[in-house]
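Entry:
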Amino acid sequence: MQERELTGGLDSISRRNNWEYLVMTVAPRDSLAEARRRVVEHAEYGKWELQRTILYRGGTRRYWMRRRIIRVQSTLPA
């Protein structure tokens, strides 16, 4: 199982992209129960939500998860 977090650069900030993405790729030899457990674990503890799931012809599965980026502004005097 392979996990890759996608973060935007300066271009996505200028377009006000408010989401960060996590892409999980599951090989055909990996069990579906293990993949499901990992998705649920990310959703419960990492505050990710499942956006898209694709099953490819060879048996590979790919899950796109996303969560909202919370930008915090400092309230301390400068």
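Residues 9-14 have pLDDT under 50 and may be disordered.
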